[in-house]
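Q: Joint fold for the lines below.
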Amino acid sequence: MVEYVEILNAFWNGMTMLFTWPVFSAMMIGVIAGMIVGLIPGLGGLVAHILLIPFALQMDLIPALAMLLGVYAVISQTECIPAVLLGVPGTVNSMATTLEGFPMSKRGEGGRALSAAHFAVNMGTIFASIIFIMVLPILRAIVSRFSSPEFFMMMALGLVIASTLTGRSKARGLLMAGIGLMLGTIGQSPGTGDPRYVGPFLYLWEGVPMIPILLGLFGVPEVIDLAARNKTIATAGHQVITMTTGLWAGTRDVLVNMWLVLRCSVIGVLTGFIPGLGGTAAEWMSYASAVATDKDKSTFGRGNVRGVIAPEVGVAAHMPAAIVPTVAFGIPGNPPMAVLLGVFVILGIRPGPEMLTTKLDTTFMMVNTVTVAGFIASAICLVTQRWLAQLCFVRASLIVPFVLAAMFVGAGFFRLSMGDIGFFAAAGLIGYVFKHLDWPRVPLVMGLILGMSAEPYFFASIDRYGATWLYERPIVVVLEALIVFTLFAGPLKSIFQKIWISFRTTERA
Amino acid sequence: MVMPIKPLDGTKAAEAKPMTPERMRPILLGRKADWILMAILLVILIIYIALVQHLNWRATVFPWFITVAMLFVLGLYGLSKKRNPAVWDEIYDPEHESMSVDGDTGPDYLMKNASGVKRSLFGFLAITALTMLLGPVYAIPLFVGGYLYFQGENKIFAAVSLVALWIVMHYGFAGAMHINLPDGFLIDLFK
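A: Joint structure:
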């Protein structure tokens, strides 16, 4: 009980931190920037995120966090507007919403679908916050048992899970994580202080520049493709279906389906806790849950409002939940969090148990920012969605030069050196190749970020416990077993299947 | 013309769907590019581990671990590709046109939009070179103004964008905020 009082106190402190003038205004900048850039199909929320990072690095810690999380929070809000009104999913996270929302829009229920989507997002984030508060004592108990060996092994597990779950090929994911780890070893060795791979370049002594690499890897490929197409994804063929009716109907739909909302919130929170899984898993698992529990399954795909509510709740709930593994274990819960983790480290936030104990108010400030920004974004979206949808029609020739200019300037901001521009351009070109060859880029970023922290943990473990930590510490052993299982679950399954089939055949014979 | 191909989905050759050359070309391009990427990665790994051999063992533990693990995965990946080259091609299966949200990824897309992609990549390299030579303060406004002009946007808008961006970067960032973006090599030469 005392612990819950302490937790609720931290929750309140987090809320008061958010509602100070500089922090709130920084969050609003994030919300508005996220809405504008996030609405342009082909760019999306992740690019909006990355564009603001260089500016965040010039700010104080808490306002910078509020601004970046403001962008993070509005992604799912804005994505559903083109998905429902134009049938154009901004990213894969709004595919399921498109399936049901656009047919609703075509029969004149766009307002109802959007209202349901926005309200569902808010319910999802609120439920996620409640679930977070409820499981916090358990999380704290687990994290308090963590020392360098556990953190090292947790990072290894996070990297393996992210590599095997993102993209279609485990091998490609692991190789990309390896490339990230290789980049992370550039600079001074944490074990000895020896310079590694720096050559004659003083610039590299501090390691590779993370922000220019992020900007290049994720931003440049999208801009190059936008320029190559030289047209917006939302073409004139798509009619903007405008409406103002149905707003209350959508809200009522969410309230009537509260059990579905709760179930999808739990799904969203669980997927948020699993490193690197992202919103897509939350979206489709929630959608599947809505389909599976509906009496009339034939209405799905033809505009069933439950098919709008479920994925929106799932995606929304996974967003605050993904903050938890990021700050507690240093393992990003989804791709935007992988990007944000890099920024956290630069801004001075050190993931670890203290983020759930002494710095719990900062963690709650972050979770609350996502919830509050989501509310504000919903209100803005409901009032302005007719006009916001027009952003989808802005010509590529108007977007490309300004976005690319912002990226170049942002890259140059990092160390104010020409090396930043070089790394940005190289990462952009390599990112373009990886994007089109389907080599997942998220494991590379995770390898880069986690590699920088994992090596010091590794040497701390060796210096303190020798090699005994590998087999004497129970949590380490469990994490090792999970790593082996994640890596070899597929081959083991097929081997056991073959053995089972041959056994059955022999038995029948 | 319809040509017979090796099966893409691990089924027997007799069950494989026939494919047109238009569909085969991106598939073969994707496979070739994959092999090239693996070869580059192998060379990088050899150089990567060779470069740290003179250092203290503590500085080489991690690079060795990474190299060995990557060689192992690379070997497995190469073997699986060799055994069944089509294993990663499902994205190009006509029945599953694209796994991307708007069908804008993969060699298929690159071949369809080859001229646009080449132009965009050339433009990106050009702006990078310009920034290296002149620095972002001059290169970025020039690029934005030039891009808008050559894309047929309103000339006045292009000119205003060019001037406004230069003012923001020169007086806003450097003057008011004291953020001194790097100078280009050409500017350094004349200083």
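Q: Anything notable?
A: Helices of chain B lie at 21-50, 57-83, 107-112, 114-134, 136-150, 155-176, 185-190. The longest helix of chain B spans residues 21-50.
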